[in-house]
Amino acid sequence: MIRELFTAKVNSITAAALLVAFSSIVSRFLGIFRDRILAGQFGAGDTLDIYYAAFRIPDLIFNLLILGALSAGFVPVFSSLINHKFEFKSNKQAWELASNILNIIAVSLIIIAGLGIIFSPFIIKLITPGFSSEKLNLADSLTRIMFLSPIFLGISAVFGGILQSFKRFFVYSLSPIIYNIGIIIGAIFFTPLWGIYGLAWGVVLGAIMHLLIQIPAVFKLGFKYNLIIDFKNKNILKIARMMLPRTMSLAIVQINLLVITVIASTLESGSLAIFNFANNLQSFPIGIFGVSFAIAAFPAMSAYAFNKDRLISSFSLTVRQILFFIVPSTVLLLTLRAQIIRVILGTGQFDWQDTILTIDTLGFFIISLFAQALAPLLIRVFYVRYNSKTPFYIGLITVAVNLFLSFYFSAKIGIAGLALAFSISNIINFILLWLILHFEIDQLDEIKILFSTIKFSLAAIACGLTVQGMKLIVWPFIDMTRLWGVLTQGLAAGISGILVYIAFCSFLKSEELSYFWDGIKRRLSWKKIATGDQGEARGI
């Protein structure tokens, strides 16, 4: 039965989406557990600053060179070559393409990793100008170790693309979970043996495990490896053309992260760690609601790309569904951020001062939660209309704004200023995307979206007041110096707030609440339908 589960073909888009969404949630919870271990062992100080700085360049290489190529190009091209009826026997052209792209990526990454290892001291000094010589040396050593991870993740990403194309989503959805488990193993078992170097080897172990879990399933599909490198192959050229817009968009994100790393390195010790902890927490609802809904809506919007009425209808519904979840998430994160941070990170070396800094930083992140959650959907509308340039140019403006504001606010209020700059630049990004899309399509059903948002906002205000009131009611009866006390207060207040939000939405006759209940009650649809790339939901 277990063997069948690993090799089963998933033809339903609903089932495939559920598998990937479930893996994303599990992976993100493991990420939170990983952060708790790191915070407890090291606190927000030099060690984690070094770790996060060393992680930056290898992660950039993987995201730019591999994720862009495979998510945008490899999966659709490879899928078009597959003979599903005789998938185990007659896929010679598809397997040749897989071997070709596998070899090109492996060789490219080995060369880039080799160059990265050689020039690591220069790169680290460039992105962490505020580090002392001792921190630079340690960051350099960790970066050299972590340069191994993009090689394994790159090869694994090809195998993941193959599994997606054949609709073997179970193993594909397990890989990011295994990746995080590898990092956790490094934090728990390697660091007592090798100190900070154990964190870097944990990342490498996670990348290796990410690859190994997918290999048996790929070979069971009939994959036959060929030693072939052909840059002139028509399918390779097609992938190269398709990957360019995606890579450009990913470059914007990576530049933003580099800017933040550079500035955070000049602030007090632990600033980079605080930023990453707060960013990981605020990314949780964005990944689950913003990215997931954008991915789910992408096929429908692609079909209606130039049918304005149906495109606007699909877009409006998705926006309202995202806001239905993001508005209360914003209020809950804002009112319970102290409890959340103490429960998740408040252990071991992570002291009260670290908690205060993370609370302030997370608070500024939360301001732009709605903008960050809606941006993936807006960008996809441009993509389905064959316009990848506009999001890229707007992204460049966003980076420039973020750069200026980061220098200004970090000088005023420290690491929390980076989160404030990040939020303002993301809100500007959202406004520009929306306005340009509005003028391009004529209208985006703003009136209906506005009325729904007013309902959500009124319900969310009631939710927030309930949370604050329940915190005061529970407080005298528990020990707030203990984990169980903080957790009890947070759960009681949070659950009460959610129930009040749902009750108010019901009273205000929110259509989106009805859609939500209908979705829960409705039986799964097992209609066979092609499934698009789910890479963004994987949580790597």
From TrEMBL:
<feature type="transmembrane region" description="Helical">
    <location>
        <begin position="144"/>
        <end position="163"/>
    </location>
</feature>
<feature type="transmembrane region" description="Helical">
    <location>
        <begin position="196"/>
        <end position="223"/>
    </location>
</feature>
<dbReference type="GO" id="GO:0008360">
    <property type="term" value="P:regulation of cell shape"/>
</dbReference>
<keyword id="KW-0573">Peptidoglycan synthesis</keyword>
<feature type="transmembrane region" description="Helical">
    <location>
        <begin position="318"/>
        <end position="336"/>
    </location>
</feature>
<feature type="transmembrane region" description="Helical">
    <location>
        <begin position="391"/>
        <end position="409"/>
    </location>
</feature>
<comment type="pathway">
    <text>Cell wall biogenesis; peptidoglycan biosynthesis.</text>
</comment>
<keyword id="KW-0133">Cell shape</keyword>
<feature type="transmembrane region" description="Helical">
    <location>
        <begin position="284"/>
        <end position="306"/>
    </location>
</feature>
<protein>
    <recommendedName>
        <fullName>Probable lipid II flippase MurJ</fullName>
    </recommendedName>
</protein>
<feature type="transmembrane region" description="Helical">
    <location>
        <begin position="356"/>
        <end position="379"/>
    </location>
</feature>
<feature type="transmembrane region" description="Helical">
    <location>
        <begin position="101"/>
        <end position="124"/>
    </location>
</feature>
<dbReference type="InterPro" id="IPR004268">
    <property type="entry name" value="MurJ"/>
</dbReference>
<feature type="transmembrane region" description="Helical">
    <location>
        <begin position="458"/>
        <end position="478"/>
    </location>
</feature>
<keyword id="KW-1003">Cell membrane</keyword>
<dbReference type="InterPro" id="IPR051050">
    <property type="entry name" value="Lipid_II_flippase_MurJ/MviN"/>
</dbReference>
<feature type="transmembrane region" description="Helical">
    <location>
        <begin position="244"/>
        <end position="264"/>
    </location>
</feature>
<dbReference type="GO" id="GO:0009252">
    <property type="term" value="P:peptidoglycan biosynthetic process"/>
</dbReference>
<dbReference type="GO" id="GO:0034204">
    <property type="term" value="P:lipid translocation"/>
</dbReference>
<feature type="transmembrane region" description="Helical">
    <location>
        <begin position="60"/>
        <end position="81"/>
    </location>
</feature>
<feature type="transmembrane region" description="Helical">
    <location>
        <begin position="12"/>
        <end position="33"/>
    </location>
</feature>
<dbReference type="GO" id="GO:0015648">
    <property type="term" value="F:lipid-linked peptidoglycan transporter activity"/>
</dbReference>
<keyword id="KW-0472">Membrane</keyword>
<keyword id="KW-0812">Transmembrane</keyword>
<keyword id="KW-0813">Transport</keyword>
<keyword id="KW-0961">Cell wall biogenesis/degradation</keyword>
<dbReference type="GO" id="GO:0071555">
    <property type="term" value="P:cell wall organization"/>
</dbReference>
<comment type="similarity">
    <text>Belongs to the MurJ/MviN family.</text>
</comment>
<comment type="function">
    <text>Involved in peptidoglycan biosynthesis. Transports lipid-linked peptidoglycan precursors from the inner to the outer leaflet of the cytoplasmic membrane.</text>
</comment>
<feature type="transmembrane region" description="Helical">
    <location>
        <begin position="484"/>
        <end position="508"/>
    </location>
</feature>
<dbReference type="GO" id="GO:0005886">
    <property type="term" value="C:plasma membrane"/>
</dbReference>
<feature type="transmembrane region" description="Helical">
    <location>
        <begin position="415"/>
        <end position="437"/>
    </location>
</feature>
<feature type="transmembrane region" description="Helical">
    <location>
        <begin position="170"/>
        <end position="190"/>
    </location>
</feature>
<keyword id="KW-1133">Transmembrane helix</keyword>
<dbReference type="Pfam" id="PF03023">
    <property type="entry name" value="MurJ"/>
</dbReference>
